Structure formats: structure tokens, C-alpha cells
Amino acid sequence: MLSIRRSAVGGISVASRHVMATGIVIGALAFTLIALLIPVQKFGGTTAAAATAPAGDDDGAGTLSTAFGPLTAQDRDFVRKVRLAGLWELPAGRQAQQRGTRPLVRTAGMHLVEGHTELDRRVREVGQALGVDLPSQPNAQQQDWLAQLDRAQGAQYERLFIQLLRRAHGKVFALVAQVRAQTRNSMVRALATDANTTVLDHISVLEDSGLVDFDGLADASSAPPTVSRPMK
């Protein structure tokens, strides 16, 4: 009887050790599987986001999820360019109001100031809501345009003002249409709608001046007009 009990106890001990060993093996396998999966999940999301970013002015952040819909690199680039447009067109418009001799040039300047004052307010709201960092000063090319306007005098100034602004608005107009058609973000779509109205108004008043050189606008690859030679 005593031997039977010992045998039974020994059997239980062996079974317990077997169960424990099996549990350790399963736990080790599970830990290994988790360790393998975590890097895939972590970097897989980044890779997928980057793959959705369009070519062009890509800030490298890929497509981000927001409460207003997906926010792509193109969306963020558009928001920043709307802000940049106001940073140089507002001072250019104020200058035209002061220095323009033709009433239609002063009117164009007034429309620039009014339109970009409101559009700049909107773009700053959008930038804050979507977490998009916005520029605080004109870029190098825009600063050069403002410098050209500062150096120009008289009728030359008015023609240069109209041509520079008309060309810039033509390029922005094409970008606005592209973003408006493609964006899936409701805030960016609303901003594009506002920008479309503003840019079209500015194009119209600039053309109303009668000073636009449409032949010069036709060559998109040509450099903006400069004040190195008189403009007739």
C-alpha cells in the first residue's frame, strides 16, 4: 500500500513537471511571435502612409488621419502655399493702392488686400485645426518680386505689378482646381473653394487693367518680368 502511494505521488510529480515544461515552451513561442509582429506593425503603418504621399512638394509625413478626413502631403502643401500667397500679395496690394496712378491698378490693389486679408484669416484657422505649420514670411522668389516692385517707377511699376501678380495667380488657380478635385479633407476642400473665388476675382481685376501681357503669360517656363529693361 505504501509503494502504491509513493508511485501515485511520483506520477503526479512527473505530470506536473510535464505541464510546466509545456507551458514554458508555449510562453516562449508566444513571446517570440509578439516580438516579431511589433516591428512589422510599427513600421508597416509608416510605410503605408508614405506610399500614399503624392510626388512633388512632399514634407515626408505621408497621409495623416484627421477628424476632417485624410490629410495628404498635397493638401498640406496647398495650405502652406495659400499662406505664402498672402504674405507677398498683401504688401504688393497695399503698395499698388499707394503708388498706382491708374484707377484700375489701385482697384486691383484693393481687391488683393481685401481678398487675401480674409483668405489669410481662413488659412490660419485651417492650419491650426489640421496641425499644419505655416510659413511666416515670403519665400526667396516672392521677396525678389517685392524687391523688383520696390525698384520700379511710374508706368513701369504698374505694368510690372500687373504682370507679376497675374502670372502668380494663374499658377495658383491651376493648383486650387487640382486640390479641390482631389482632396478628401473637408477643411482643405472648403479652403480650396474660398481660394478659387478669391483668385478668380483677382485674375479678373488684374486683367481689367488692360496691362496684362498675355503673350508673356503663354510661356510658363519663362522667368517673371524684371525691371532690367523698360516695359512699354
Structure report:
The radius of gyration is 32 Å and the shape is elongated. The N and C termini lie far apart (124 Å). Residues 1-16, 28-56 and 220-232 have low confidence and may be disordered. 75% of the residues lie in helices and 0% in strands. With 232 residues, it is mainly alpha-helical. α2 (73-99) packs antiparallel against α3 and α3 runs antiparallel to α6. It has helices at 2-52, 73-99, 103-130, 140-151, 154-182, 186-208, 214-218. The chain contains seven helices and no strands.
Q: Which regions have little confidence, pLDDT < 50, spanning 5+ residues?
A: 1-16, 28-56, 220-232
**What would you call the shape?**
elongated
Largest sheet data: none
Would you report the number of β strands? 0
What is the overall number of helices?
A: 7
Q: Helices and strands, in N-to-C order?
A: HHHHHHH
What portion of residues is helical?
over 70%
β-strand amount: under 5%
Distance from N terminus to C terminus (CA atoms, Å) equals 124 Å
Mean pLDDT: 79
Q: What would you report as the Rg, rounded to the nearest angstrom?
A: 32 Å
The secondary structure category is: mainly alpha
